[in-house]
Amino acid sequence: MLDAGSEEIVSTLAQDLAQWSSQAADVCVVGVNGAQGSGKSTLAARLAAVLSDCHGLHAAVLSIDDIYLTKAERTRLGQDVHPLFVTRGVPGTHDVGLGIKTIKALKNAGAETETPLPRFDKLSDDRRPPSEWPVFTGRPDLILFEGWCIGAQPQEAGALGTPVNGLEAREDPAGIWRRWANDNLGTEYRELWRFIDRLVMIQVPDLEFVIEQRLRQERELAAADPSAAAMTRAEVGRFVAHYERLTRHMWATLPPRADIVLSRGPEGFRDLRRRSD
Length: 277
What we know:
Elements: H1 4-23, E1 28-34, H2 40-55, E2 59-63, H3 71-80, H4 96-107, E3 114-116, E4 120-121, E5 126-127, E6 135-137, E7 142-147, H5 166-171, H6 176-185, H7 188-193, E8 198-203, H8 207-224, H9 233-253, E9 260-265, E10 268-274
């Protein structure tokens, strides 16, 4: 549920997306970037609804969280490359080929085509079986591709030497994990980002905001499944530390490249800035 101010911004953003769609020669792919807890999934879902209700446009929503490698695949990655890759999140822990295949299928769909959309279960930390994936029917007018690292560019090699937090200092002192993730970002992820026609970025105040929002999500996940134990604050802090390096890099580099930047605080979305403004 969004408050009135956020709903007004979503309405304005939907108008921009509708215009982008009308100007595109093909299905318009809109990347939605935002840190954990920034509201990107809620925003994408709400945009799809407003585009349908107010503009008569059919939008498919795909999350990068739903194309994580399976638990078994990440376990092998942790054994073969670095133990930190067991934890989902950084570049290298996604099935990029699955993402490209899904976007291509949506762009090439016919009026009656049924395209399965991957789904990942965060409680079990594993991909759901294809029999449980939802199906998108038809050819969308837009694809909303949302995720925490959407559109991110690799860091310069020289920036990788110094750890950004205790996790990197203790568990990746030689920099193997962060360099391998960065290399992936500059190769196969770049091929995935090529499908993005427009980029929307959600800006949040700081890393503390990310931790607080992630804690809230943990409580919500646990409430949905009483058998699941929510992460403690310390556990959330360690989890977010996996994302910190790239999150800070994106905060510094993505805003000038984004077509639209949304400002987000605890109360919701409060500002929308276009690159042309």
